[in-house]
TrEMBL record:
UniProt organism field: Emericellopsis cladophorae
Residues of the Glycosyl hydrolase family 31 C-terminal domain: 619-700
Domain of life from the UniProt record: Eukaryota
GO BP of this protein: carbohydrate metabolic process
Keyword set, alphabetical order: Glycosidase, Hydrolase
Protein name (Swiss-Prot/TrEMBL): alpha-D-xyloside xylohydrolase
Domain called Glycoside hydrolase family 31 TIM barrel: residue spans: 284-605
Keyword Hydrolase: yes
């Protein structure tokens, strides 16, 4: 990470930094609705000052309503190699840029609801971003906030005639106001508010207990009603109130840097506009929301093991909707060659068919990655055909990290993509329905040559995750249908939300790792991703029974819920020696699986709204629903389940938990007790409950208690529960395919106006859901 300053007064050692010092000239952009600013790195007080004077060109452009882009460049003759983010995938909205001047001769560019006003004083540099309706400043580019830097710093301009021994960086610094917080930047497991942190957007396989991230997204959101998207898939370094405590510094290596300022003012509006730029999340099928079970990673398993696990889950009232075969469905040293281990799985097609026919699972997923092991069946063919990444001397790029002598699929080669798709079709022919696209973070940048020679290997490092997941997702769509494709991806970058879903990677089996995972999910939610999951129970190690059960409660409230471990199984009876009591792992899992099954009509309707708005179903911060509540921007141990239900996971073995409720009246899902926020509350919970509160004004559609698993008709035999509703409150009802059937609306008499589009035996509970038939619960207020 490049550092520009050594404290307030000194430049960083070995670095020369040049700042735009004034706006010397303003001209309209040719054919664009914007302005081009010529900004010298020194003040121009005479003609002589224009000589030997570097400049920064800053283009400011109206993109669409509420969005303005800026591009800073030093030497504009430098090539701008790809890959580039695939922006406006659904089409670009029209732009209506308006340029005006005020009585102080200050120039303003407005793009709908967002405006930027340029510094009008001579020999000064500055831009102020504000709404067109109000005077409140969102953020600024203040004095010495845009420029470039050399490392090492040249001692004379003559040295820059040969740039081979120098690195060149572009940077900009947005103002950080008093009380401002910064969120997003992908799936980050550090403190949820990034102020005070230095962040490098560079995909890495670092687990959840470090400052590295599998999913680096060059977008962040402020609690002041705006967001910033950095349009560069390469490494972006941010000093968020760290190098300069009153600024967010962004820097990239190269001669240009482009970014977008996105105005909400609400977080939901910011994310919707961001989704217009980078794409909306894809639709996921209803079955994917059910319970997933895996073989775990390095555990020993074959067909009989898999069958016994699924029968055990079914017998313990935790039916599995999706079963996942992890890496060792293939033989050791062969990953990924797309061939089942014939000794352990002699008839994979028949086995998969039997599992489905016996009702042990509805869908099957297998593990893959973009690495092709030298000792696998696929390597020789792929190498001979030129489908693998090469070194500059023509050798196949190989190393021994992960799989011995492995190569990497060259996703820039159309023929390699077609070959890989055919390999996947072979799996689909055997009954595979979904794919876990693991890895894809350790993409080399040195001494490599991609098939597409126009791409910059540095930018390919992060962007590989987009291209690889796109390849697999589109193969699934082509075989199973556009709305039936499901990934379980680990690596991602901006735009990869279009290929759902992602999970949080390798976490430890501890309460601290559970909290890390929640922070990562919340950050991912404010990075434009709607669907997120984690390894229930933790991946590394063997979870103590109490950690497993607390994680089950949290995991079954995520959009997607998967039991997965590394060297130990995650079927509940192996965790606690098959404790058959109500507080044992098996009964606890059964309770939470049943709860999610009942919530599926709500979950799926909320998921449809989420993807349309580019907002998270999982994990959703309280701040998305309560942006005016300052506390909501700092709560990072709880989340919203959709827009209407608040969940607070428990991290203590004794069951004690402290949680926050925003303004309003909240009803306990389990007991019907009502609490009034805003305020902090403390409770003590057994393993079958946690603080799960329904917001006032909620119309909650619940599935029939007799349903088993996530696959059923979400509009039939439902309970419609009303929680302190008033006239005009409403919700959307959907069927299993996600089709909107109609709106349930509260009339002036406090009753639902029309339920004719619902099917079967419909019950309406006017004082919250009917608690009759629920097992007794004991929740103690502390």
């Amino acid at each position: 990470m490049v550092k520009l300053r050594d404290g307030m007064w000194l430049p960083a050692e070995g670095v020369r930094t040049e700042y735009a010092e004034e706006i010397f000239n303003i001209t309209p952009l040719d054919g664009e609705q914007g302005l081009s600013l010529l900004c010298p790195v020194g003040q121009i007080r005479s003609r002589g000052n224009t000589l030997n004077m570097p400049t920064v060109t800053l283009d400011v452009k109206a993109e669409f309503d509420g969005v303005i882009s800026l591009e800073a460049a030093h030497w504009r003759g430098a090539q701008n190699h790809g890959p580039h983010f695939d922006l406006y995938p659904d089409g670009k909205p029209s732009a209506e840029g308006k340029i005006s001047k005020n009585d102080k001769n200050a120039t303003t560019l407005a793009s709908g609801s967002l405006a930027v006003t340029l510094e009008s004083e001579p020999h000064r540099f500055g831009l102020k971003f504000h709404s067109t309706e109000g005077a409140k400043t969102l953020t600024t580019l203040g004095s010495r906030s845009v420029g470039f830097a050399y490392s090492p710093g040249p001692s004379t301009p003559m040295q820059t005639g040969d740039m081979r021994d120098f690195k060149h960086y572009m940077f900009f610094q947005t103002g950080l106001s008093v009380g401002e917080s910064v969120h997003g930047l992908g799936e980050r497991f550090t403190a949820w508010n990034k102020v005070g942190q230095s962040v490098s957007l560079w995909n890495a396989d670092g687990g959840t207990s470090s400052d590295q991230a599998y999913k680096n997204v060059s977008f962040w959101m402020s609690n002041r009603g705006y967001g910033i998207f950095i349009d560069n898939p390469g490494r972006v370094d941010l000093a968020v109130g760290s190098e300069r405590t009153s600024r967010v510094q962004h820097s990239v290596e190269g001669q240009r840097l482009k970014w977008y300022v996105i105005y909400g003012p609400t977080p939901k509006e910011i994310l919707k506009k961001y989704s217009i730029l980078t794409g909306k999340p894809g639709k996921v099928p209803g079955w994917s929301h059910g319970l997933w079970l895996t073989t775990s990673f390095t555990t020993n398993y074959d067909e009989s093991t898999v069958t016994s696990f699924l029968e055990g889950m079914k017998n313990r009232n935790s039916p599995v909707d999706v079963f996942h075969f992890d890496c060792f469905w293939m033989k050791a040293f062969t990953w990924t060659d797309f061939v089942f281990d014939s000794e352990r799985f002699p008839d994979p097609k028949g086995q998969i068919a039997r599992l489905k026919e016996q009702g042990l699972c509805k869908k099957v997923c297998v593990w893959i990655n973009p690495y092709i092991a030298e000792h696998g069946a696929a390597f020789k063919y792929a190498a001979e055909k030129g489908y693998l990444l090469k070194r500059k001397n023509g050798d196949i790029w190989q190393w021994d990290l992960w799989q011995a002598g492995m190569g990497l699929v060259d996703v820039t080669n159309p023929e390699a993509r077609a070959w890989y798709t055919e390999c996947l079709n072979g799996l689909f022919d055997q009954g595979v329905d979904a794919l876990k696209t693991d890895f894809g973070e350790r993409i080399p940048t040195l001494d490599v040559q991609w098939h597409d020679k126009t791409v910059d290997p540095h930018k390919m490092h992060n962007y590989y995750a987009f291209q690889y997941n796109q390849l697999v997702y589109e193969a699934l769509q082509k075989r199973h249908g556009n709305d039936e494709a499901v990934l379980f991806a680990r690596a991602a970058c901006a735009g990869a939300q279009r290929f759902p879903l992602v999970w949080g990677g390798d976490c430890e089996s501890t309460p601290e790792a559970l909290a890390e995972s929640i922070r990562g999910g919340l950050s991912m939610g404010l990075s434009g991703f709607s669907y997120w999951s984690c390894d229930i129970g933790g991946f590394e190690g063997s979870p103590p029974p109490w950690v497993y059960k607390r994680w089950v409660a949290m995991g079954l409230l995520c959009s997607h819920s998967r039991l997965h471990g590394s060297s130990s199984y995650r079927v509940p009876w192996t965790v606690d020696n098959d404790d058959k009591t109500e507080e044992g792992c098996s009964r606890t899992l059964a309770k939470w699986t049943a709860l999610k099954t009942r919530l599926m009509p709500y979950f799926y309707a909320q998921g449809m709204e989420s993807r349309e708005g580019g907002i998270p179903l999982s994990l959703r911060t309280l701040a998305l629903e309560f942006p005016e509540d300052p506390t909501a921007w700092f709560v990072d141990r709880q989340f919203m389940v959709g827009s209407q239900i608040l969940a607070a996971p428990v991290f203590e073995e004794c069951g004690e938990v402290e949680f926050y409720l925003p303004k309003g009246r909240w009803t306990s899902y389990f007991t019907g007790e009502v609490k009034t926020g805003p305020g902090w509350f403390s409770e003590k919970h057994a393993f079958g409950t946690l603080p799960l509160y329904v917001r006032e004004g909620t119309i909650l559609v619940l599935g029939n208690r007799k349903e088993s698993g996530a696959v059923y008709e979400y509009s039939k035999d439902v309970e419609v529960a009303l929680y302190e509703v008033k006239a005009g409150d409403k919700t959307t009802a959907v069927d299993y395919d996600g089709n909107v059937l109609g709106e349930l609306v509260v009339g002036d008499d406090g009753k639902i106006k029309d339920t004719s589009f619902l099917k079967g035996d419909i019950s309406i509970s006017e004082m919250g859901r009917d608690l009759n038939g629920d097992p007794p619960v004991a929740i103690e207020s502390i």
